[in-house]
Specification:
The complex is a heterodimer of chains A (298) and B (190). The two termini of chain A are 51 Å apart. In chain A, the strands form two sheets. In chain A, strands 5-4-3-7-1-8 form a six-stranded mixed sheet, with helices on both faces. A two-stranded antiparallel ribbon of chain A has the order 2-6. Chain A has 298 residues and is α+β, with helices and mostly antiparallel strands. The longest helix of chain A has 46 residues. In chain A, 59% of the residues lie in helices and 14% in strands. Chain B has 190 residues and is of the alpha/beta class. A five-stranded parallel sheet of chain B has the order 5-6-7-3-8, sandwiched between helices. Classes of the chains: A alpha+beta (298), B alpha/beta (190). Chains A and B meet through helix 1 and helix 7 of A and strand 5 of B.
Chain lengths: 298, 190
């Protein structure tokens, strides 16, 4: 009977119920997305501990774009997998010639992409010893996946295919090793390949002024949303409450108990506020990724 | 239904003290008396809409009570059918009662658009559909003409005739339908 009364009342006050549902959804969405965006801005501009010595990236791609690509799952350029294989062959060859137990440098290919709204980084090679997982390390917040996984995930995406290399592509190669051989490698890569090598140092993308501007804009935007939503929510609840009191007068006369009235109020709060608010919170990352994909990076 | 030593007063005004009655089933009791002497308050006490202050009202356990307020409360932004569905989902029964009262079920039209008489008739239909063991009617015919009053009382007698029915009314047309009359002022002043 409580549910039935709720359904009739919702149908009769559809505009009000819809407004309340929407406001609650946006409330949850705005609260969580502000939090997410703040973290995103901080990640994007905070000093980065790369934990690697050299990054081989497509020409025209800087370490800043590398960071952005790793956070958003959208590569800003591609290089062939063949380059990674050549490097691996070179490592094996050098190791064999000099009879060293350890190679002078190690290489790891990577390809960022999006899957179900979250960022994944497919790894080609052995990631052992590569990623230091401390608080400042960029890798601590990134999800690494097996290389074979991306072949299934990206097989139908045209963005990950080029006329020259087909789908045999990477976004870049990370190198860790001794400084002297790396300088030679950097020179060779820059001169003879389609890629460009960058020596990686901590704190490359720090820009305090930009962070402050973006955070101020974010706080202003959040305050505006809350200023619009909170009065809307309160007003909708007041109107709904007046209508509910009218219903309760009748329900009392037909013998409804006080407990049933409390259950009815609880049902309204759960369905018209808590559920849409939670939905807003949970869909926030998906919608932000979608907006990011369509309008910012697309 | 037994009323034992029932007393009630508003903040500064005692309405009645130590009242004792017995209301039998299959009986229509017409309660009469001047305005403001506590007749409606008595019905509200029986319906449980007001808390007892002293004395008690003894009713068989699990007895359903149907109460018709003198202002004919309906949920104004709901339709007639939605208002009636709170007490019964039997659409055929709803339609039959409404037809007997010469009322249509005009789709989604809200109850706020009904006239005083129509509201009263819908409220009576709601009480009939509720089919309570104890029926409390506060001025049930105030907005009804002679013909509609006759229909209302005929329906009440036919469908709720075996129940305990208490009617508070100034309407002299109801004298013929009552099995017993209770002069409230006389009872209160004893």
């Amino acid at each position: 009977m409580i549910l039935k009364t709720f359904l009739i009342e919702s149908r009769r006050s559809f505009k009000l119920v819809f407004t309340l549902f929407l406001c609650s959804f946006l409330f949850g969405f705005a609260a969580f997305s502000s939090f997410e965006l703040k973290n995103y801005i901080e990640k994007l501009f905070s000093p980065t501990e790369w934990g690697i010595d050299l990054a081989i990236l497509p020409k025209g791609t800087s370490p800043e774009s590398l960071k952005r690509s790793l956070l958003t799952g959208r590569p800003e350029g591609l290089i062939p997998v063949a380059l990674f294989k050549t490097l691996q062959a070179q490592i094996t060859d050098e190791q064999r010639k000099s009879s060293l137990t350890q190679p002078t440098f190690k290489a790891l290919g990577f390809l960022p992409y999006q899957k179900n709204g979250s960022t994944q980084i497919a790894i080609l090679g052995n990631p052992e010893d590569f990623f230091v997982k401390d608080d400042r390390s960029i890798w601590s917040s990134i999800k690494l996946t097996d290389w074979n996984q991306q072949i299934d995930d990206l097989s139908n995406l045209p963005n990950y295919k080029t006329p020259e290399w087909g789908s045999q592509v990477l976004m870049g190669i990370l190198i860790k090793g001794e400084s002297e051989p790396l300088l030679k490698l950097k020179e060779m890569i820059n001169r003879r390949t389609v890629a460009q090598a960058w020596v990686m140092k901590a704190g490359i993308s720090t820009d305090d002024q930009k962070i402050n501007q973006l955070e101020t804009a974010l706080y202003t935007f959040t305050c505006l949303i809350f200023l619009c939503l909170v009065p809307g929510l309160i007003l909708s609840f007041i109107i709904l409450s007046a209508r509910r009191n009218e219903i309760f007068i009748v329900l009392k006369e037909i013998g409804w108990k006080q407990a049933s009235q409390l259950q009815f109020i609880l049902l309204q709060i759960v369905i018209l506020f808590l559920i849409p608010c939670t939905l807003g919170v949970f869909t926030s990352p998906l919608i932000l990724n979608w907006v990011n994909y369509l309008f910012i990076l697309g | 239904m037994n009323v034992q030593n029932l007393s009630f007063s508003y903040v500064e005004k005692p309405l009645f003290q130590n009242l004792n009655f017995e209301f039998k089933s299959a009986t229509i009791t017409l309660i009469q008396g001047p305005s403001g002497c506590g007749k409606s308050t008595f019905l509200k006490l029986v319906a449980g809409l007001l808390d007892l202050q002293s004395g008690q009202i003894v009713i068989s356990p699990n007895s359903k009570i149907g109460y018709l307020h003198q202002d004919c409360h309906l949920i104004d932004h709901w339709s007639i059918q939605e208002n009636l569905s709170l007490v019964s989902t039997d659409l055929v029964k709803q339609k039959n009662f409404l037809r007997e009262f010469d009322l249509q079920m005009p789709g989604a039209t809200p109850a706020s658009q009904l006239s005083g008489g129509e509201r009263q008739r819908v409220s009576i239909v709601r009480t009939l559909l509720q089919n309570p063991e104890i029926v409390l009617l506060d001025e049930p015919t105030a907005h009804l003409d002679d013909e509609q009053t006759a229909v209302a009382m005929k329906l009440i007698k036919t469908h709720l005739g075996t129940k305990t029915i208490l009617i508070v009314s100034h309407d002299k047309r109801l004298f013929d339908y009552a099995d017993q009359k209770l002069d409230w002022k006389l009872q209160v002043s004893r």
